[in-house]
């Protein structure tokens, strides 16, 4: 399994200029799947955005009145998130942190959002990460996690995709999985942009025709997991 968990490698995987955007995940706002979760009343209390990247999800949640902390291993990403929050007049805390330990955050959060971080970690670090989230959360806390799904053909080149069994074995050790189903994750990529990105590496080849939004941007298949902290 490819190790993309270090800051430099994780950032470099997402900064190839495509269609004039800095990263394939920079869609100019929060993920629609996260907006739907918040609209449904499934976010509560103090929120951790784990692997917050450029901060748009955290900024959205803060704009809805939540106290939000965004953490990422990449200083450049945190700097950009802080700039975006300032530009929108939204108060959110952003800090550089190791998500596999989350030192200093013990017993703090009621909700965790993982928007495409989990699949960036090795299997060993996935286990450490899920344990760190458990320590950082209060009893009864809820986890919302999105990661690229191995059970659906790749619509975009990615470093690795996650199986349902991986999630049940790893997350299920310390969290009660209440929902796990396939969903679609918005990207800024178009099919032409993906062709321009092609690396030729077998593990990153596109193997299916992607589903597109109304602007011709690719929606990538992901696992959408919801789980509750087991005391």
Catalogue the unreliable spans.
1-22, 199-204
What CATH calls the topology is Rossmann fold
CATH architecture: 3-Layer(aba) Sandwich
Chain-averaged pLDDT: 87
Count of discrete domains: 1
Structural class: alpha/beta
**Structure summary, number of beta strands:** 8
Radius of gyration: 16 Å
* CATH homology-level superfamily: Vaccinia Virus protein VP39
Order of helices and strands: HHEHEHEEHEHEHEE
Question: Topology, please?
Answer:
Layout: H1 7-12, H2 32-39, E1 47-50, H3 56-63, E2 68-72, H4 75-87, E3 93-96, E4 109-115, H5 123-136, E5 137-148, H6 164-170, E6 175-186, H7 191-197, E7 211-212, E8 218-229
Parallel strand pairs: 1-2, 1-4, 2-3, 4-5
Antiparallel strand pairs: 5-8, 6-8, 7-8
GO molecular function: methyltransferase activity
Protein name: Transferase
Keywords: Methyltransferase, S-adenosyl-L-methionine, Transferase
Question: Can you describe this structure?
Answer:
By secondary structure, the chain is α/β, with parallel strands linked by helices. It has a single domain, classed as Vaccinia Virus protein VP39 (Rossmann fold), CATH 3.40.50. The protein has seven helices and eight strands; from the N terminus they run H-H-E-H-E-H-E-E-H-E-H-E-H-E-E. Strands 1, 2, 3, 4, 5, 6, 7 and 8 form an eight-stranded mixed β-sheet that branches. The longest helix has 14 residues, at 123-136. The radius of gyration is 16 Å and the shape is globular. Keywords: Methyltransferase, S-adenosyl-L-methionine, Transferase.
């Amino acid at each position: 399994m490819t190790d993309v968990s270090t800051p430099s490698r994780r950032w470099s995987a997402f900064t190839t200029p495509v269609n004039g955007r800095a990263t394939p995940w920079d869609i100019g706002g929060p993920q629609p799947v996260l907006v739907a979760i918040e609209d449904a009343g499934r976010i509560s209390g103090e929120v951790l955005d784990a692997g917050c990247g450029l901060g748009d999800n955290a900024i959205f949640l803060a704009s809805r009145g939540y106290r939000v902390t965004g953490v990422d291993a990449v200083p450049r990403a945190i700097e950009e998130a802080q700039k975006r929050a300032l530009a929108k007049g939204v108060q959110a805390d952003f800090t550089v942190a190791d998500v596999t330990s989350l030192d200093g955050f013990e017993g703090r959060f009621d909700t965790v959002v993982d928007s495409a971080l989990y699949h960036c970690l090795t299997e060993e670090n996935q286990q450490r990460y899920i344990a760190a989230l458990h320590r950082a959360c209060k009893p009864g806390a809820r986890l919302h996690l999105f990661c690229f799904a191995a059970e659906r053909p790749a619509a975009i080149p990615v470093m690795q995709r996650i199986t349902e069994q991986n999630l049940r074995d790893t997350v299920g050790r310390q969290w009660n999985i209440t929902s796990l189903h396939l969903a679609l994750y918005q990207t800024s990529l178009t099919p032409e942009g993906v062709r321009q990105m092609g690396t030729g590496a077998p593990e990153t080849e596109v193997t299916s025709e992607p589903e597109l939004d109304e602007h011709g941007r690719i929606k990538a298949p992901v696992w959408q997991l919801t789980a509750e902290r087991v005391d």
